[in-house]
Design brief:
By secondary structure, the protein is mainly β. Helix content is 0%, strand content 59%. The chain has strands spanning 16-30, 39-43, 47-51, 54-57, 62-73, 79-86, 89-90, 96-99, 107-118, 124-132, 138-151.
Length: 152
């Protein structure tokens, strides 16, 4: 017995990327700064990793994006967050947040989130940024991982 024959459908996993880094003794990242990724594995042409912190996404597409960061929070009484930024606009659904309250730094934590984003008529520039409730606040980044998959 044989199965259905006919044309093959689209390969939904043809365009994907994973980017990652391990920073040894840590990399200090300040409020508003983009997270760098030194290593990547990219399949297809809809995603490009052009600088350590920027990914170029093909226009008029949808992408599933998830990320995980592990870090030491360096200041007490600070609200820290990580968030995806597309063409300079914050993607609110991608925010991951933690507050140090009165905990004495350094405090180990993990930031993680997953969301779906849509690019417009022009290629999109995607970055992952650190946010903090006060200017000049920072984290000591231990590891970073981001996955981007174009959704057909």
């Amino acid at each position: 017995m044989t199965g259905v024959t006919g044309p093959t459908g689209p390969n939904v996993m043809m365009n994907n990327a994973v980017a990652f880094d391990g920073y040894g003794s840590g990399l200090e990242i300040f409020d508003g700064q983009a997270i760098p990724f030194s290593f990547d594995n990219i399949n297809g042409t809809a995603i490009q990793h052009t600088t350590p912190s920027a990914f170029i996404l093909a226009p008029n597409q949808q992408y599933m994006v998830d990320y995980v960061l592990t870090a030491s929070l360096l200041q007490a009484n600070t609200d820290y967050g990580s968030v995806l930024v597309l063409n300079g606009t914050t993607i609110n659904s991608s925010l991951s947040n933690v507050d140090t309250f009165d905990n004495q730094p350094p405090t180990e934590t993990t930031f993680a989130n997953s969301t779906i984003i849509t690019t417009g008529a022009v290629p999109g520039t995607l970055r992952l940024h650190l946010q903090a409730s006060a200017t000049g606040r920072s984290i000591n980044l231990d590891n970073s991982n981001m996955r981007i998959v174009k959704i057909v």
